[in-house]
Amino acid sequence: MKKWAMAVATGLVFASGMGGVHAGDVEAGKAKYATCQGCHGPSGQGQAIFPGVAGKDVEYLADTLQKYRAGEQVGPNSMMMMPHAINLSDEDIADLAAYMNSL
After folding, report:
1. What percent of the chain is predicted at pLDDT more than 70?
2. Cα separation of 94 and 18, whole Å?
3. Per DSSP, what are the bridge partners of residue 50?
4. Domains in the chain, please, with CATH?
5. In terms of Cα–Cα distance, which of 69, 68, 54, 63 is closest to 99?
6. Concatenated DSSP letters of the chain
7. pLDDT reported for residue 92
8. Who's near 28: CB < 8 A, 6+ residues apart?
9. Confidence check: pLDDT of 8 > 70
């Protein structure tokens, strides 16, 4: 009975969106990252005023992209990032986060 209750509770958490970021597809993220490399560098190392994204925590990356997509001010470059993030789906964000984490 306890296992069943735990499975139901876990399902409810994930269904409500509180389960965190779902695992992204690194290869799909690599394809999407092509538009990011002009500012963040081909290896995610960052350049000039644009921060490095390589190896950052997946949840941090996804949360930051979600904030940009929502139009939230995250840092000094928010106004430059918001137009890039506005059309990203949750899956796109998960894929990008997985790829940037893998760099």
Report:
1. 80
2. 15
3. 47
4. 21-102 (1.10.760.10)
5. 54
6. -HHHHHHHHHHHHHHTT-S-PPPP-HHHHHHHHTTTHHHH-TTS--BTTBPP-TT--HHHHHHHHHHHHTT---STTHHHHHHHHTT--HHHHHHHHHHHHH-
7. 98
8. 91, 95, 99
9. no
Tell me how long the chain is. Answer: 103
Average pLDDT over residues 71-95: 97
Calculate the alpha carbon distances from 22 to 40, 54, 58 in Å.
24, 19, 10
Q: What is the pLDDT of residue 63?
A: 98
Between the CA of residue 34 and those of 29, 38, 55, 92, 99, what are the distances in Å?
9, 8, 17, 13, 11
Q: Are 95 and 32 in contact, with CB atoms under 8 Å apart?
A: yes
Give the end-to-end CA distance of the chain in Å, rounded to a whole number: 43
Separation of alpha carbons 45 and 52, rounded Å: 4
User: Over the stretch 30-65, which tens digit does the pLDDT of each residue have?
Assistant: 999 999 999 999 999 999 999 999 999 999 999 999
